[in-house]
Amino acid sequence: MNSEIFSLSERLVSSSYVRQGLQARRAHEQLIRLLLQQGKCPEEEWSESTVELFLNELAVMDSNNFLGNCGVGEREGRVASGLVARRHYRLIHGIGRSGDIAAVQPKAAGSSLLNKITNSVVLDVLRFTGVRSVSSCFVVPMATGMSLTLCFLTLRHRRPGARFILWPRIDQKSCFKSMLTAGFEPVVIENVLEGDELRTNLEEVERKIEELGAENFLCVHSTTSCFAPRVPDRLEELAVLCAKHDIPHIVNNAYGMQSSKCMHLIQQGARVGRIDAFVQSLDKNFMVPVGGAIIAGFDENFIKEISKMYPGRASASPSLDVLITLLTLGANGYKKLLAERKELSALAERHGERLLHTPHNPISLAMSLNRLQTHSTAAVTQLGSMLFTRQVSGARVVPLGVEQTVSGHTFRGFMSHACYFLGHIFNFKRQTISYIPVLLSGDDSFRDSLYTVKIIFQKCK
Amino acid sequence: MNSEIFSLSERLVSSSYVRQGLQARRAHEQLIRLLLQQGKCPEEEWSESTVELFLNELAVMDSNNFLGNCGVGEREGRVASGLVARRHYRLIHGIGRSGDIAAVQPKAAGSSLLNKITNSVVLDVLRFTGVRSVSSCFVVPMATGMSLTLCFLTLRHRRPGARFILWPRIDQKSCFKSMLTAGFEPVVIENVLEGDELRTNLEEVERKIEELGAENFLCVHSTTSCFAPRVPDRLEELAVLCAKHDIPHIVNNAYGMQSSKCMHLIQQGARVGRIDAFVQSLDKNFMVPVGGAIIAGFDENFIKEISKMYPGRASASPSLDVLITLLTLGANGYKKLLAERKELSALAERHGERLLHTPHNPISLAMSLNRLQTHSTAAVTQLGSMLFTRQVSGARVVPLGVEQTVSGHTFRGFMSHACYFLGHIFNFKRQTISYIPVLLSGDDSFRDSLYTVKIIFQKCK
Amino acid sequence: MNSEIFSLSERLVSSSYVRQGLQARRAHEQLIRLLLQQGKCPEEEWSESTVELFLNELAVMDSNNFLGNCGVGEREGRVASGLVARRHYRLIHGIGRSGDIAAVQPKAAGSSLLNKITNSVVLDVLRFTGVRSVSSCFVVPMATGMSLTLCFLTLRHRRPGARFILWPRIDQKSCFKSMLTAGFEPVVIENVLEGDELRTNLEEVERKIEELGAENFLCVHSTTSCFAPRVPDRLEELAVLCAKHDIPHIVNNAYGMQSSKCMHLIQQGARVGRIDAFVQSLDKNFMVPVGGAIIAGFDENFIKEISKMYPGRASASPSLDVLITLLTLGANGYKKLLAERKELSALAERHGERLLHTPHNPISLAMSLNRLQTHSTAAVTQLGSMLFTRQVSGARVVPLGVEQTVSGHTFRGFMSHACYFLGHIFNFKRQTISYIPVLLSGDDSFRDSLYTVKIIFQKCK
Amino acid sequence: MNSEIFSLSERLVSSSYVRQGLQARRAHEQLIRLLLQQGKCPEEEWSESTVELFLNELAVMDSNNFLGNCGVGEREGRVASGLVARRHYRLIHGIGRSGDIAAVQPKAAGSSLLNKITNSVVLDVLRFTGVRSVSSCFVVPMATGMSLTLCFLTLRHRRPGARFILWPRIDQKSCFKSMLTAGFEPVVIENVLEGDELRTNLEEVERKIEELGAENFLCVHSTTSCFAPRVPDRLEELAVLCAKHDIPHIVNNAYGMQSSKCMHLIQQGARVGRIDAFVQSLDKNFMVPVGGAIIAGFDENFIKEISKMYPGRASASPSLDVLITLLTLGANGYKKLLAERKELSALAERHGERLLHTPHNPISLAMSLNRLQTHSTAAVTQLGSMLFTRQVSGARVVPLGVEQTVSGHTFRGFMSHACYFLGHIFNFKRQTISYIPVLLSGDDSFRDSLYTVKIIFQKCK
């Protein structure tokens, strides 16, 4: 409220109280001012009341909320349902213009500010989580896979003759489909086993480039976060190769923001070689609903080029979720949420299983399922279904030697990231594991009937 | 947001858009300014976004929402549940101080403003609905009956020797109990039948005053809104009597705000005689949840005296509901909600029943139930239960000659407001009636078995 | 949703997923079933989603939300503003009937359930916080003071000849007013100083009873929670006296639920003597908005009698707040919130002040302000204003020898609970104190000018 | 709640009331049952309470809301901010799987149901608004332009050798960019002027197909809704041509759902020729926030193919908005929102201007701005800025002969859909026009200074 309103209030309520109220309002405004001035994630969390105050202020600036709006001839920004209007804080216009998803809209100063500030705050988070030299980024209301597709489509305009994308294998469907959707042919590089770890086969990468010709590659498409025993790609070496052969390099950093190791790999890759863009999901990295991603990079012009490829205005919903979340957490709160690694006990060994040694994978762990080995795959499937009915999410059982065909390409040993694996594995995220399945020792009956496999879930810290 | 914040916004979004946004904000502020300046119900409805903006601004002024609040030693204004905080817009302090329910609280400039403005806006509504000379009022989070009790308790301090309250009979329990709860002895004046109408027996009133002595009466307790065939009390004549005998006069105006006739009666009563306070319910008059009332009067000092009788701080919830409702309706919207009288068709007669002629009752109508007359009361009870199971609310069946004892006092013919009535009646509110029960003509079977009474509900306009 | 709907869902989504969803729904229902079955505060907290599910279910049972509601002739339960409807979860009917604030309403099965369950859960909390033998209670949407008034008004019907209420002095306005509002004459018993503590003067109590006659006392009105150096009344001895003289006994337990000592005193008093009802505030005890209280007692009939004194239906808002809060905390969460006593450091002494020794007061502490002693009262006032502008709530400065007249009665030494105190004191709640004011040692300048008093707030743990 | 819970309730509240409540619950359930059974937009609107009940039920079925969820190793469906969780009704999982945006998710039966039902209800709406034979559709959380891109990318897999997209010119940036983003070369067909109308140049279309070879065209990309004087493309003739030459046909139906004429054109096109998919925006057609589209078609397999091209899971936010909106409107409410055409008065002529005669454009109208003709373009620009500052949205001024370059392609006469236009025009939507700008007659001063152009906005009905 402006000063005139405060003066009027003093006629109703003693002026010393009103002045204290005015001072309190200024404390909220001070936070908003700092946010706009610095464009950074605030150190300390904001209260929900400050967040709502801010969003209401933004909404008031959008034309659909103008009190004098005569709305000639348009349904622009009109919303039929009050439930819908409220759940979006009356920010209805989406983000971007037909020309550019990161651009400002004439009719929607508030929504435009929301978009700009969110991108700016997210850039700050990318920096303090490890990619210090990132120069530009934007939030896009599409899945990570579709966002990768948009990057590939943008590159096509720069390399109209390219047909292939070089891709070290990672067994996750949408990564693979992102290339096919963009109309390119993935050149799959199988990983090599080093100890327990599956790592990037750099020799094979270089061989393929020479075999097919660097100019025929749209880009290298590498990956950081993945399920063990695969580990993040050798980003530094790949980036150097890309620079050497003048091939663009797009990194799928899916859930990598939670790991300082993944972020460090990107920072290093860009320093010593070439990374054109890296893409990360919003949901797990920021704990928001599914459906958004961040496209980021080191060359502002290239990132701008990508944002200009999106034809039309886009949903502001993921941007709004990220902004609310970061303001209510603050930078300090966000950092606390980042993966706290937990030492897994010797639990596996006590039960005759082995934790695979994958030190390069900062996110996920894998355990052997040897005791199930001699038995048919049905036992493994049963374990999977037990996880499901016990409502255990975030862990999965990978049976030995499954073949899967994705959009015409057949992957042997699907979900183990390699075609030559030797046993079933139990795969789970490192950071919040609290239960692992343990086969009961007295499983003689097991030999007789698969349906008596007994599994307990033992709590570990 | 202040001008500095707008300047910062201009660095992110083109300044012409920001300036338009600023202008839009001013449009909301202008409405708030007018409200504070005039203290009146705005002519036009406010949008929900303006209402929420205003409430958020108020909340920010309360000390529980101070960002720098160190909260020494107190749970003052701390709320455990986020659900609870949000549903009260974080206005937690209630209204009033221990000394006065209408007073300003040091810790809560926002809640205090809410309280002041609500009372001021409600006063405006009382004026434009007909009691033009009302000088003071306040919202109290208690039922109408309990609010009447508070009025009586206040009067006791002025008339310490009084024992009786003179009360023209109205068959509604809480009115009667309000006097008993305050510790007084009601002197019940039975109504007289004039035509179909039950009206105040003024001769009896005067006779009782003389019999028991004016100085022994705490007050006259009259009623406006009531079910037909009772009609509003003869307020003018009662007010003149009160002035003449120097007896205070408290009017139960329960749902009378919906009727210009009731409001006019109060205005006239105060003009020609004496009315000390009139009390009305919040729920039906303002279409808000049950549980609040307005105590109003013509002598500011006396109303202040009542507000000072409430020991402690009170719930702000009813005040908040009324304020939100009046702002989102506007004066014009409120006026539209006021009772539109509907001409009831000749329906009753077509079915051999009679609509009682009660022109002085602006709110409620009554219809005979002659066809049920000759049968036992069970038929009437059955009709009542049919209304209930058909989810017909707002109408009731009054069986002939029911006796009911309320707090020790026995009322003959309860709910018909008189002890000598001749038939069952069907009683309903005038304004929104859309169905009335009609006995089927071919009800021969009825004579045989009560359980075959056939009733249809016929739509009327 | 019922089983038919789940079957239909299985046509759209795989039935194993739907069955898992159904099982998940049952987990919520199980919690609701237990609540209804046991009528107790659940041990563990409910998620907000369970709470909202439950409230929505209740709302659906109220007639204003009936889809087929034809609403004949009534505005019953109609709410004009969507904002208002939503903030009350569409529970609009309030609680109670005109006959009884704790009764069931025909039109509102959901609101009635809300009312019953809230009272039942609150009774459970009263028991586990220490008053194990409490037999009945109800939530009333009125301040503690007004609730005490209602108790006194109820007693009047039992003791029509009584004029006095015997009241050991406690310097809090609304306690005192609660008796005046009910129309009685407080007989003030000054406290006696024992060491640093102000305690009940039992001899004087007994003397007064004999002087004025037990039959002329409506009741004894004692107090538990209070600011130091006053300590809770000697409840056991008072209860024995009441039993001996056949005088009712009403206890003001304002904020006493936070202290097991206060609750224990009530339990003991009722065991060895007579306590008719005890009244506590909702706000600080349950961390909900201001404006409700609980009236509880050991004789179900008497508590029922009080609930029947409230004329009319009452606001459900405080009941709703309490229920939401207790469900989202759970019994365990509630217990954790209970006062954790903190040992106050030797801070006071380091600054030449003394912490008063008041071991019988479990809630509040007092510190001398000797250094301000020799100076005028203005210095004390200045300290108070510093607390205010620093947004320190929950602490207060009590200047020496202030006189205050409350409703005609003059209290010497107001706010110190005694008329003969010797110095200014600084008074604060025990439990959450984190800052206390400390006068700077080098306060020579102070002697010259009051306006240079320097005070720092030193953090204590 | 299940029957056991209702039984328990009967112990607290009279069983007849509880049974009425149970019956009321069934009324809500009946609506939900019908929705799931029929998969159609309900005829009558649902109350907000039914909608919220339904959404809460869906949310309970998602694994993130399972009370027993042990959440092993994952942040799956965990949301950091309560504000965010609530605004999505705790439906967090998005829609689809990595394999298919329309597929069911194992962990999220509720979100999956939401997705299925939304698509089913939207299909029903497409049918009753005119495209009776549409067989399949899905909501996608992307702009119309990006959704068109997805269609083109899908077609690429069917026609790997194609390079061109045949596109009758429409001056809207994102339509044009949708083809470039997908990596294709638009072949622009200039429109022909027939009377005042700009219509599809069929001869030129056929000529181009023959010139470049049908097999080299990915598809024809036609448009329905557009600004006058352009009118919807000749869909029937184009569809016949596509069938004849075996070229796919994608229709941009942007805002065409509001016009029965546009929908009829699509229905006819598919009947007599070939339409592979048609894409429409969510925002204006359903009055929801910007950022979603519907992709629909007549061959279920092809639509499924498109949905499988989206790599990853997508935001459920637009689906949720559409579902809430359609349920709260009902089919009848939706139909009422559909364009009510208003006869524009002879206003234009009274002011010396002419309304262009464009009977084939059901959505938009254009008016000449002859009086500005003789003056410089600055006058037109000024008029545009006046519209802006008067907060008139939905209308625009098109200056004569503006050239604009979009992604390298230069359009002469941009925004007039043709390169040879003769005058400035004022362009606005038909349906909700309420003000048009009118030049004052006494505009002599205008000749002297452009800055004194006087324009009034005259209300028309």
Write structural notes for this entry:
Chains A, B, C, D: The record marks 74 as: May act as a substrate filter by repelling compounds with a negatively charged alpha-carboxylate. The structure is a homotetramer of 461-residue chains. With 461 residues, chain A is an alpha/beta fold. Chain A folds into 3 domains: 1-38; 109-336, Aspartate Aminotransferase, domain 2; 347-459, Aspartate Aminotransferase, domain 1. Helices cover 41% and strands 16% of the residues of chain A. Chain A has helices spanning 3-12, 15-38, 48-60, 82-87, 109-128, 144-158, 173-181, 202-212, 235-245, 260-272, 283-286, 300-307, 317-337, 347-350, 370-373, 377-389, 444-448, and strands at 136-140, 164-168, 185-189, 192-194, 197-199, 217-223, 249-252, 277-281, 293-297, 364-368, 395-398, 403-406, 409-412, 425-429, 435-439, 455-459. In chain A, the strands form 5 sheets. Chain A has a 7-stranded mixed beta sheet with strand order 1-9-8-7-6-2-3, sandwiched between helices. In chain A, strands 10-14-11 form a 3-stranded antiparallel beta sheet. In chain A, helix 3 crosses helix 5 (109-128). Mean pLDDT of chain A is 83; it is low at 70-75, 431-436 and 438-461. Chains C and D meet through helix 1, helix 2, helix 3 and helix 5 of C and helix 1, helix 2, helix 3 and helix 5 of D.
